[in-house]
C-alpha cells in the first residue's frame, strides 16, 4: 500500500467528501492522526488496495512543524511501507507469543535498522508503537518524525542532534546523561528495551519521570564504572549518580526465568549501559539467538545515503515549496510503479487485534517536558531530558 503523509487529504488524492470515507483510525497521536482508507474513491488504481493518509494540521503555523513534516515526508520516500497493526497492540492484546515470534520480530527490526543506519539515519524513537506488523508477522519500522542524520564527524554530528524528543522508556542512558556524543548505539538500546518488553509482556524501564527512569536503569544494570561515569556530560547528573548507593547488576536470568538463554545473552549485550560496550546492529544480526534467521545475503544496506541538506532551510515558504515538490515526486512515482506483492510467508502467524485503542496506550509521548508556562520540574529532571530539555 502506498503511504500518503499529507497536509490536507485532497492535496494528494482526489477524494470525495463522504464522511464514511475514513473507515477507521489506525493511530491517534497528540496531533497527527493516521487514517486507513478503504472507500473505492480512494484506492490504488493499479492494485485496488486502500491507502493511508496521515493528516497533519496547521503545518505551516510554526517553523518546527513545517520542518518536521518535510523531514518525515522525505524520509518516508526513502523508507516506506504500510502494515495492519503495531507491535504495541500485539504485546498488549494478551495473546500468547513464542520464542519464535520474538526471534522473528527482533531479527526484522535489526534488518530494518541496518538498512536505515547504512543511509546515515538514526531513527531515535524505536518503540513497539512504531513497529508495524501484519498477520504473517512481517514487521516494518515506521514514524521517522524524530529521525536525524548521522556523521562519523563529531562536530558535524552535533549539528544533527538537536530536538531529541524520543519516548522516555526507550531512551538510551547516554542521551539522558548528556554524553559528549552519541551514535547508532542509541537505536540498539531501544531494540533491547523492546526485546525485554517482549520477554516480560510489559515495558521494562517504565520510569514515572526522567529521574525515576535513570533510577530504574541503574537498579537493573547496576552502578556504571568510573570510566563511564567520567563521560557523563551533566555535572548535576554525574553528582547524582555518584551519590547513590552502589548497586549490583541484576541478572536477566532471574527476571525472565523462562526465556531462551540466548535471548538473554543478546539482551545483556544490547542493554549495556556504556554505548561503547553495546553490541552493534551487524553483530546482533550474527548473534546465535538469531542464527535460524541470519542470512547476510538477505540483509541489504541502503544503496544511497539520505540527504539532510534540507535541514538548513529556515523559511516557511521555502519549506512549503519543498513539501509540494515531494508531493509531486510521490505522484509521479505511484503512477509508474506497480503495487508490490506480499512478501514471503516465513514467520509464525499472529492474530491481529481488532479492538486496540491507540489513544489509550500509556507510553509517555515525545515532547512531554514542555508546557506553555515554562519549565516546572527540578534542575536534575531538566538535565536528564538531554537536548530536548531546551525551551524552544
Automatic annotation (TrEMBL):
Region feature Disordered, mapped onto this chain: 339-392
Chain intervals with Low complexity compositional bias: 339-349
BP GO terms, sorted: cell integrity MAPK cascade; negative regulation of glucose mediated signaling pathway; negative regulation of mitotic cytokinesis; positive regulation of calcium ion import across plasma membrane; positive regulation of calcium-mediated signaling; regulation of fungal-type cell wall biogenesis
Alphabetized GO MF terms: ATP binding; MAP kinase activity
Keyword terms, alphabetized: ATP-binding, Kinase, Nucleotide-binding, Serine/threonine-protein kinase, Transferase
Domain Protein kinase: residue ranges: 1-290
Record InterPro entries: Kinase-like_dom_sf, MAPK, Prot_kinase_dom, Ser/Thr_kinase_AS
The name this protein goes by in its record: mitogen-activated protein kinase
Organism: Pyrenophora tritici-repentis (strain Pt-1C-BFP) (Wheat tan spot fungus)
Lineage: Eukaryota, Fungi, Dikarya, Ascomycota, Pezizomycotina
